[in-house]
Amino acid sequence: MRFTLNQNYMTEFILLGIPFLHELHGVFFVIGLFMYIIAIVGNGFILIIVTIEPRLQTPMYIFLCNLAFLEICYTTTVVPKMLQTLLQKKTAISFACCMAQGFFHFILGSTELFILTAMAFDRYLAICRPLQYPVIMTKHVCIQMSFATWYVAFIIMFLQSIIVWRLPFCGSNIVDHFYCDIGPILSLACTDTHLIESLGLLTSILIVIMTLILTAVSYIFIISTILRIPSATGRKKTFSTCTSHLIVVSMLYGALVFMYVRPNVHSSSRLSRVVAVLNTTLIPMLNPFIYTIRNTEVKEAVRSAIHKRRGFLKCDF
């Protein structure tokens, strides 16, 4: 542990990774690196195909583009340092980098919840208000909603990050985690953190639970509308436009509720760390597959892009 002159100010933390699985760190490194590469390539693919294909530049895919960009940033905030820790068993991270990692981790996570809620509202309008949908959900409105999700998440997390940043850390600098999560960091503060914990729990409830409720209400109306469609084929086709979003929402909210919407954020149980690994690696990797593997519009856009590329090459030749 290091201190600056005449100040109780810690300059670095030591990340332990996943101590109870030290003997498997090599295996986890290979798996984590594979998931990280797939997540970057998969989400990068979504960004590229939506950008180059005019037919995909609709509100639903603009939101999906935001989600893909978020996943790239979200996983990059945590995974590279996690991989380094897995290789070295433990690794140092400066105080400033630790605070920045925690800040971006939570701002990106919060923005993702807001984006998923906006996507649920978009599906509600498309299915329950199809005639009004083109008038309400214009491209301009979609971009404004996307910007609002980033702005609100930034303001909420910035204010809380300032409070954590100013805490005195004068004891141990060992973080029993693979990234600077709020619970392990608060446990190192040499002051009473109950008020901050309560504020964090309240924020988690407001963001996680409220966005979950809004998403659930949207889907109650969506399912109610789908059930009134007389044709079984029509019901299946309409519901298929929502299944990808529902799968992602179920995985993400399940992990977040388990990790953050509970008292005693100091808790760093083995199970919570395993869930954190899945949340930062598995979900970002699966999202591109979930949203594209059964999406006929994306498949057609890919075929169109390939045909255009082949035609361009033939013309050059």
Automatic annotation (TrEMBL):
GO cellular component, as recorded: plasma membrane
Keyword Ribonucleoprotein: no
Taxonomy, superkingdom: Eukaryota
Topology relative to the membrane: Multi-pass membrane protein
Principal place of residence: membrane
UniProt keywords, alphabetically: Cell membrane, G-protein coupled receptor, Glycoprotein, Membrane, Olfaction, Receptor, Sensory transduction, Transducer, Transmembrane, Transmembrane helix
Localisation: Cell membrane
Domain called G-protein coupled receptors family 1 profile: residue spans: 42-291
Record field: transmembrane: 26-49, 61-80, 92-121, 141-163, 201-227, 239-261, 273-293
CDD domains: 7tmA_OR6C-like
Pfam family, one: 7tm_4
Family per record: Belongs to the G-protein coupled receptor 1 family.
Name the UniProt record assigns to this protein: Olfactory receptor
The organism of origin for this protein: Podarcis muralis (Wall lizard)
This protein's encoding gene: LOC114583510
